[in-house]
Design brief:
By secondary structure, the chain is an alpha/beta fold. It contains ten helices and 15 strands. It has a six-stranded antiparallel sheet with strand order 2-1-4-5-6-7. A six-stranded mixed sheet has the order 8-12-13-3-14-15, sandwiched between helices. A three-stranded antiparallel sheet has the order 9-10-11. Helix 5 crosses helix 8. It is globular. Bound molecules: adenosine-5'-triphosphate and magnesium ion. Adenosine-5'-triphosphate binds next to helix 1.
């Protein structure tokens, strides 16, 4: 028996990006958004992510989401979950903070996380393996924040404390002593950082299992993908895995040791050098560091394996399949990988696919999918 799904039954936008008004009834299975460039396809997926995450992956300034010349935008989704259906809405205004509601009752942004869980695969994700560590941390943060409200809380508090600590460090910059003034922040930093790091380590371990399995199947067992969490205090040498992560006290001790080791450099540079803001995840294919050695095709297969592992992870954590958003990436995948992706999600994951060119999509898929045409900020069933 397959697990229940999270389903968007209706999506309503007002003055969101280039849309004046949209009222859409998507299929619970595959939806294809078809349209030429710059018509609003990605904007539509962005609205779903905005609802799910409470912020846009494309901009930190919510005001950018408001249609040019307007003052207020809104996005709303009727979301069907395992045991409830509700309306999730965000109203964005150019001159006031956004307001999030669930069935018209106000919600704090972090309480909205998890109501509409999503996994997204955007063209930028194709650089996940070779790009900078921030992209890999972001993947973990988005995933874990949706799966576990406590994670989001720790992460938000962690970043707040880190900002305070950086202000203090800036004031101390260039001095050879003064580290004791950081101590009040250090203790608080640890309290928030350790749960974040423990959760990341466990998540990478689980993602690695699922991604490794999928990757093995996609390469017919010819290649082996490993993912390894690299906490900021790990050296370049192979990280001793797992044991420490069972024991938060041991993680805190490693963090403390790193704080002592880095204190002089932190004072010299006036910025925090210790902490999960410097974590990374290593991708290893057949024992070699994929960041350096993977071919284009290998990177793609690895990213796709991770995306499928994310779906698995959220389903296992929340008990429901998340919504999948595929922005223009199917044409970037060869038929074998594309087939793998679509077969995996078929029938039990609500999927939104945008594309300017339907050709790579099989006839069978197009027949089964609900197809919408996106043209100059309008969406109509095809
Ligand atoms: N706040 C806004 N108000 C009005 N229009 C906007 C706003 N923000 C972005 N746009 C416009 O929305 C248009 C469509 O953007 P979108 O990224 O969704 O295109 P797309 O259909 O995904 O195109 P592509 O196939 O090239 O990816 C852009 O041309 C942009 O100028
Ligand atoms: Mg686009």
């Amino acid at each position: 028996m397959t697990a229940p799904q999270t389903i968007i039954q209706r999506l309503i936008l007002h003055d969101f990006r280039n849309y004046r008004h949209v009222d859409l009834e998507p299929s619970p299975a595959v939806n294809v958004l078809l349209g030429r460039n710059a018509q609003g396809k990605t904007n539509l997926l962005e609205s779903v992510l905005f609802l799910g995450l409470g912020k846009s992956p494309r901009t930190g300034r919510d005001g950018e989401l408001v249609r040019w010349g307007c003052r207020v935008a809104s996005a709303a989704a009727l979301v069907k979950k395992r045991d409830s259906t509700g309306k999730l809405q965000i109203v964005v205004s150019v001159d006031a903070p956004k307001r999030i509601t669930w069935n018209d009752g106000p919600l704090r942004p972090r309480d909205a996380l998890g109501l509409l869980t999503t996994v997204s695969f955007f063209p930028d994700d194709l650089y996940l393996v070779k790009g900078g560590p921030a992209q890999r941390r972001r993947l973990l943060d988005v995933l874990l924040s949706q799966a576990d409200a406590k994670y989001a809380r720790h992460l938000i508090r962690y970043h707040r404390i880190l900002r305070h600590r950086n202000v203090q460090l800036k004031a101390l910059q260039g001095r050879s002593r003064g580290g004791e003034l950081l101590e009040v922040w250090n203790q608080q930093l640890l309290e928030e950082a350790v749960p974040v790091m423990v959760a990341r380590a466990r998540a990478v371990h689980r993602l690695a299992e699922a991604a490794g399995r999928v990757h093995g199947a996609m390469t017919e067992g010819r290649e082996r993908l490993q993912l390894v969490y690299k906490p900021f205090f790990a050296g370049d040498e192979e990280q001793e895995p797992d044991a420490a992560w069972q024991d938060p006290g041991a993680v805190a001790a490693l963090f403390r040791a790193a704080l002592e080791r880095l204190e002089r450099d932190e004072l010299r540079r006036g910025v925090s050098l210790a902490g999960p803001q410097r974590d990374d995840v290593r991708f290893i294919i057949d024992g070699a560091d994929a960041r350096t050695y993977a071919s284009q095709g290998q990177q793609r297969t690895a990213v796709l394996a991770v995306k499928l592992a994310e779906l698995d992870f959220l389903q296992a954590e929340t008990g429901e399949h998340p919504v999948l958003l595929l922005d223009d990436v199917l044409s970037e995948l060869d038929p074998v990988r594309r087939g793998f992706l679509l077969e995996t999600v078929a029938d039990h994951v609500q999927t939104f696919i945008t594309t300017a060119n339907p050709e790579p999509l099989s006839e069978r898929l197009m027949k089964a999918a609900r197809v919408f045409r996106v043209h100059q900020g309008t969406v109509t069933p095809a």
